[in-house]
Here is the input.
Amino acid sequence: MRMVDIIDTKRNGGTLSDEQLQFFVDGVVKGTIPDYQISALLMAIYFQKMTKEEQTSLTMKMMESGERLDLSRIPGIKVDKHSTGGVGDKVSLPLAATGIPVPMISGRGLGHTGGTLDKLEAIPGFRVELSEDEFIDQVAQEKLAIVGATGEVAPADKKIYGLRDVTDTVDSIPLIASSIMSKKIASGTDALVIDVKTGTGAFMKTLDQSRLLAKALVEIGKQAGLKCMAVISDMNQPLGNKIGNALEIEESIDVLKGKGPKDLTELVLTLGSYMVVMGEKAQDTTEARKLLEQTIKDGSALKRFAAMIKAQGGDPAVVDNYQLMPQAKYKIPFNADRDGVLTKLSADEVGTASMLLGGGRQKADDKLDYSVGIELHHKLGNHVKAGEPLLTIYSNRREIPDIKQLLRESINISANGQVPTLIHEIVE
Ligand code: URA
Here is the structure.
């Protein structure tokens, strides 16, 4: 078999066979296919797309290129959640409220979106690197563990993702779907709830594209034998009110105390309800939602989150004292320059501002400042008055003209505007 023929088939709109996809994935992992040929095929897939069968076959071959976790030692139905990524998206943390076994393998942030592992490392002592046995034992005992990849999960994806990043082929539905699902299937979960973001701050900018991605993800999951569904949620503005590592831990704990922001709480309850139903702890989402609200009200959700922190070496006292996490030196107000309705609060730019303050990485080996970030005092559709604070910038630099300029560009205040819909669609 020759790689050039595989490229030729896809470039001309043909369908790749299982054998051709196996040859490709093997060659990627063994390093026998040069980067320029891998890149050429990625570009051909970007333009010619893939059939459902090709997508599933590529995903399974990428999954089989690495280790697959065996979680059968954990009693009950294991349910994971995946988000396609957004700014201020800290939903994984309050999912402690579900009380079903949640084995979560998460990633780090790069660019304007934050990573769950980075946020957790804002908690003094927290370890995200557990051995496979520690991970499995913890999910069995505490019902929740959030860790980095324990073994070599889908090495083909690592190589392909790196090339997609530099060949402008990231936002391709078959490539995103196979990348996400190869890793999730390898993680050994029984069921998966996927939060597909839509809007200016998401990979998929339109509802049509997001729906196609959600359907592709769910279809692949089902073909692989997983219980799987997706929620399409809004990412035209950051989720919740706090962006930044320690700030997002604070806000997650606030949700578990029943005093989180409305949009974040609503999304946690929505995704959490589907997880509880998939975990067969409730008949339907109405019953599941009541159960979640009850665990928040009676404090058991917060207790479970504190137990997870303790089990992973962190200081559980942070749940009562946020000052135990790194604190920024300066809190700099950013005020509205006119009266009106907030009509733009760009998630990308707010995320980039937080990254430039030191809260995110521009390069994979950048060191993070856990204390910095941005707090929003208003969301889209709110009426604001000239001179009142729109945001607070948490910074360790007193002078931040670059950040203020970027934030100015991320905001628009007009005469009229609407509160955007948070949950756009459910794909089952
Ligand atoms: N997350 C992934 O893991 N892969 C993608 O391609 C996009 C988001």
